[in-house]
Amino acid sequence: MFLGYILLENTENNMSKKNLSLSTQQKVRKSLSSRYKKETLFQYFGLSSLSVGIIFLVIFFYSVLSQGFSAFTQTYISLKVDFSDNLVVKNNKIDSIDSNFDAIIRSALRERFPEVNNRRDRRELYKLISIGAVYQLIDHLDMSPGDVGSREILSFPTSSDVDMYVKGNIDRKLDESKRTISNNQMMWIDELVEKGEIKMKFNSALFSNGDSREPELAGIYSALKGSFLMLFITLIVSFPVGIAAAIYLEEFAPKNKISDLIEVNINNLAAVPSIVFGLLGLAVFINWFGIPRSSPLVGGLVLSLLTLPVIIISSRAAITAIPPSIKEAALGVGASHMQVVAHHILPLAFPGMLTGAIIGMSRALGESAPLLMIGMVAFIVDIPSVITDPSSALPVQIYLWADSPERAFAERTSAAIIILLGFLLTMNLLAIYLRKKFERKW
Amino acid sequence: MTARDNIEDIETIGNPNVENPFISAKNVNVHYGDNHAIKDVSLQIAKNQVIALIGPSGCGKSTFIRCINRMNDTIDIAKITGKISLDGEDIYSKELDPVILRARVGMVFQKPNPFPKSIYDNVAYGPKIHGLAKDRNELDEIVANSLQKAGLYEEVSDRLDESGLSLSGGQQQRLCIARTIAVNPEVILMDEPCSALDPIATARIENLIDELSEKFSIVIVTHSMQQAARVSQRVAYFHLGRLVEVDDTEKVFTNPSHILTQDYITGRIG
To answer: Does ipTM top 0.90?
Structure first.
């Protein structure tokens, strides 16, 4: 094609030499090269912009994924524990107050490393195991009380420093004072790794626990549940309200200055910084209505305010996309205005409204600034069970963990980001799927 | 000044009045904002009669028929004055609900506009909302009847649950006609019903109009002179919002009185 183009240009040059006055055809041909040049230039510009975007995206995904994936596994130590000692049984039940579970684990460690016998070294030895190991022990005994008096091999989560060391995140060449793990501990871990007594397992704590000061015990479950409860509130508040507002504005509102003003304001509302909504929520929902702070209820209400304009705007777009001929057809057979809306406009616009709602919700899911204002940034360990319980939210949890100094929280931050992105992606895919499924051609 | 230029004080010539008027428009004026779309139109339409409204684009013929079922109500800036009565009843009176009016005056639009629902539901929609059928059987009967009258039943009887949009353009338009007559109106307004159809589909619709005129009064807006000549008993010629001439079809097409009508029919304006 390009060759032909050059040939064309040559003949055109010859022709222009022959007669000075150019015909229309020749003028068109002459302008062709500059036109194509502009097009190529524009294409290159577009391509380079696209590549810049893709490069940043790849860098972002690489850094998050490479850091975050290791948080989905956790280091465990296999130890032979002795349930014959240190346990107090009352009325066929293990008494959790008088029993010394710590001592069971410690003696198991001492047994594994009999050569460690001075107090300082032993204290270092005990630090290999997470303080959460005790709870695991209690859980195990609850599940199988028949183990009392016997010796069992159990695996316990290590402390986060050991975890980091095993995952290779601590440089062993550093001076001992600059490491969070001592030479002795390194030696013991190396021995355990060599003998196969240290294993990597799926980090279920990440999904089943609430927040914790100990990275190996910290999980996103509380934040996840908080986020879901909030999204639930957001959906049931903003979706019906948004649709009703959109339908009223599109179909029933008189076209005058006031409705114009409202329209402008709704469009502006969509661009208001989210933290402003947080302040509003603080002033209205918490201080005035007295809704408990840092609860999913107040968070959901604040996020509803945030999502509402998005839903209204997309719902109105969905309504305007319905050809007026459908409305006329329904009116023509004698449907009342409300029937036209209920029988035709709402069903036809619903997929578009739903898509808008999902996009608004996914924006709400990723929102953290307004939640900071209503106290959801608090350190919350418990899992919220109702919408008035204090809870956290995924993005806020990410913020909190990113703020923590422990190395192990860095990978958990990335892991939480991966989970959040996973949810956002799922929601957006759902929106695309619904749009494709219900898309109507007129 | 010739009669061609002097449009502002045209008196309608011909016979705008009929003996037993069913629809009677008197001094109707329509304004769309500053645009004076219909100027002082008076026209009577008899029962079981087909009247064709012809005229160049923008002459107000569509606007006029949209006044008859108050479809212009949906346009905020439209302002209608004058009086239109249906069977002696003022359709613009406050007591009259446009919903009732539109059940009596059905409308078929320029572009076929079936609902994106099944063929059955398209036809059943009107009877359903008006509560015309007691039970499903009766509704089935109304649907079958209406499709039969619209000449569509044979083609679609085995696929009534398919989407109305799956039909061809001509079938869609007949479906819209079936939908309109399912409500059993007294008047059917047709706004260029064949302008989006091919000649064969057009011929079918024209035959249909002939048959329907036995039961309904039909007001049809058309751009096709042949169509007007074929289907109508009376013709009204509109020009720039004025009703210039109205008379029996034969008279208008063979011997138009006004120079503008003459120009339009012979193809000098249009």
So the answer is: no
